[in-house]
């Protein structure tokens, strides 16, 4: 006689991870569905992934660079300096926003079908990844325009991509679970995103913080995981002409791991009540 | 014992109903923070404070209580009960969508649930894409779906429309397609919740036929909930009757169906909370035998007869009937105290009648609760003893009667020029 599936209050589902593997195809399908739907609906859908980062970069280059006088280090064209930060930031911001709403938008699935709910925010991060790839292509084009070709530093780019993915997922987990329980959380998210953009070194460089505010201030600053990630992206794309310190990297790594593990804990804890509350 | 496929022991599910003074349905972070700021050490006191401006009470509602039963491999079991009896909650627990609060359930086979037709269907995607999506959502692998694809399309009869977006389908095509995918699942346990309610007679016949095949030919265990009692009688062998979250009967299906029918004609005193001195033992609408539901046109007279048994004689008892809408909000209170009715209870059996000259409520479903009090003390409360379905009279124009957000009142009125 096979082991029965036991349904009981508070029972830690030991086979949750096995279930996740069994439902892995659903993961692809949900992401596929979201991507397909986005691009079926409008022409702008595809173009938006290009227009948004492009326009933002242009505006920042003109206003932050030429008007406000912020400079990029070395011989890096200012537009590229900003774009290299835009790339991970845009990914992080959109996946954070999408993930935070993911459970609510899939409320009908959650209340009617069983599957490991972790699939939902994970799938939404994948959809943002597709946008990210489009923006990568855009960056490539910009580099061709400026005749600025990246060199061997590019090797570490995948590492930072994974880190960006992990950061988005960690924050996304927290936000989507919180959003189910406290419905007004979705008003907090856009503010967090905006706040994050100004605090993170998108328009300026993290080295500016170090030089203007000192080393200790910089260490605190680097606790923002996006600092390490953005610095990493810049370093690898811009031929190492920007600064990247070990502290940067380690701080980001540690914070991201903390975010993911705490996010998973909170999500799994609240998951039991999703169907009841949603 | 060895061929039991579902064993349920003392299963219970409790919901906490928060009666929020400010009327919000969802918890808002700002409210939680505001409460924490106002009373950061609130957990130290036991909550009773002077000047609490927004008391929000919470009540525990047991949707299921002490439910136990066993289902053997290959049985087709029908779960019968009124709306709100706990059927959907039971199915949701067995489908792993929600967790039980008490007790446990053991499942010895893979479960697939069809709790809603077309779960996950996206209107922008084509029929073909939705088959894959829906199949994946219900737990099929890509391979399985591709193998069964042609069968599914044939069952749904939508060959010609496979590549058009589902938003262009007629409602009939939509439910056929949705059911077709679910019908080709291959679980050991199939749970179906009221999906026959959608679709025309043709569709229902097809669904029933398919479910019969699934159970007879493939030996699948099926748990079936429907309001179509004839369908249940035809399809199921065993039945379980739920009432207010408890199992009240469990036997073969014909017995259960007749039990259920007879229950609908009895007043249900176990739902009451009586002090013991006096209690309601019967209540019915004049002219009807059905003691669980009544249908009445808006504005018509409603008369309800109550029978009360009392241990002692009592003067000036105050009966009352509270009317609530489907959201649980109080709409009207027909309390004897408001009309200074001087009613007397004799020892033994008593009959009162409540006469409402015109029930000026908007069309919709309402639930009645009976109360009985004396000098401020509650003698008996019977929650939801009657469901009243208020319909629009034929004379009203069909497009123009009030909807739920127009409010519950609908007294007679007229517009004229002066």
Would you mind describing this structure in some detail?
- The complex is a heterodimer of chains A (about 280) and B (about 425).
- Chain A has about 280 residues and is mostly helical.
- Chain A has one domain (about 75-275).
- Chain A has 12 helices and 1 strand.
- The mean pLDDT of chain A is about 85.
- In chain B, strand 8 (about 240-245) and strand 9 (about 245-250) form a beta hairpin.
- Chain B has helices spanning about 30-40, 85-95, 125-135, 140-155, 170-185, 200-215, 230-235, 255-265; strands spanning about 5-20, 55-70, 75-80, 100-105, 110-115, 190-195, 220-225, 240-245, 245-250, 280-285, 295, 300-310, 315-325, 330-335, 345, 350-355, 365-375, 375-390.
- Chain B is an alpha/beta fold and about 425 residues long.
- Chain B contains 8 helices and 18 strands.
- Chain B has 2 domains: about 65-265, 3-Layer(aba) Sandwich (Rossmann fold); about 270-405, Coagulation Factor XIII, Chain A, domain 1.
- Strand 1 of chain A pairs antiparallel with strand 4 of chain B, so a sheet runs across the interface.
Quickly list its features:
heterodimer, A: 278 residues, mainly alpha, B: 418 residues, alpha/beta, Rossmann fold, Coagulation Factor XIII, Chain A, domain 1, 6-stranded mixed beta sheet, 35% strand
